[in-house]
Amino acid sequence: FLVGDTRRIIREAAKKSCFICCKMGATITCCQTGCDRAFHLPCAPDGQCVTQYFGAYRSFCWEHRPKQALRPRSSQDNTCSICLDTVEDNISYKTMACPACQDARFHRHCIQRLALHAGIDFRCPRCLNQEPFMMEMLTMGIRLSKRPPSWQSDPEIRPSDPRHGRCDATTCLCPGGREHTEEHGPWQLRLCSSCAAEGIHRLCSSLGNSTCSWECSTC
Q1: Which residues of 101-138 are buried (b: 16+ CB within 10 A; e: fewer)?
Q2: What average pLDDT does this structure show over 41-70?
Q3: Is there a single domain that holds both residue 151 and residue 80?
Q4: Same domain? 119 vs 195
Q5: pLDDT digits (tens, 9 = 90+) for 24-35
Q6: In this structure, are 75 and 152 located in the same domain?
Q7: Keywords assigned by UniProt (predicted)?
Q8: Distance CA 81, CA 105 (A)
Q9: Domain that holds residue 193
């Protein structure tokens, strides 16, 4: 924007009231034609508003936001595939689902947190579908990161990051025990490439030297 355009936008926003908190200075407006609802970005979750962080960066109020259209599922497992806590029976702003397997359910805040940690490896936590799943989440307002997964970060560079540190194989073969790890060799610990919540020694899982990733039985 030019300086004049920026000043005009600021003046216009100062006159608009956020329909969620009722305070002035709402800079975001619903892009639906004919809708005059405006809101602050921090207020959006409370008002169940959606901003799409791609393309034209369109924003929608609670009434006009995109909604998922899914087939009835056979499973009645009403638990979040990420935190395992209970989710709502029906799809809503707070409860989302995978468009590929049609069965995975998760809280919006859980899938948003996973998206930021998974980065370019973001995919359904249950069926591992990536392309349709990622586009659906973008459309529904989930913000993605373009960086590598956080669990692949070098622990020497980021020593404060929590990192799983034990072998979860049914039978651990390491003489030093499940918590013994080495940087290279048979006792190198590989974390699950999907959840990073479980790990296994390379020898305990028969992983070859050329194998770069491993997934736990849950994922």
Answers
A1: bebbbbbbebbbebbebbbebbbbbbebbeeebbebbb
A2: 93
A3: yes
A4: no
A5: 988 899 999 999
A6: yes
A7: Ligase, Metal-binding, Zinc, Zinc-finger
A8: 6
A9: 160-206
Indicate if 151 and 104 belong to the same structural domain. yes
* pLDDT classification of 205: cutoffs 50, 70, 90: confident
Q: What is the mean pLDDT of residues 168-176?
A: 87
Dihedral in degrees, nearest 10, Cα atoms 25, 49, 128, 74: 170
CATH number (domain holding residue 35): 3.30.40.10
Same domain? 106 vs 124? yes
93: CATH:
3.30.40
The residue among 111, 112, 114, 119 whose CA lies nearest residue 147 is: 119
Tens of pLDDT, residues 73-110: 666 778 898 988 999 988 999 999 999 988 889 999 99
Q: Is the dihedral of CA 206, 209, 215, 216 positive or negative?
A: positive
Residues 124 and 193 in one domain: no
pLDDT of residue 213: 64
Residue 83, CA distances (Å) to 27, 187, 195 in order: 34, 29, 11
Contact 167, 134 (CB under 8 A): no
Helices marked H in 123-176: 131-139
**10: Cα separation from own chain's centroid:** 32
In this structure, the answer to whether residues 164 and 154 fall within a common structural domain is no
Q: Cβ distance 110 to 83 under 8 Å?
A: yes
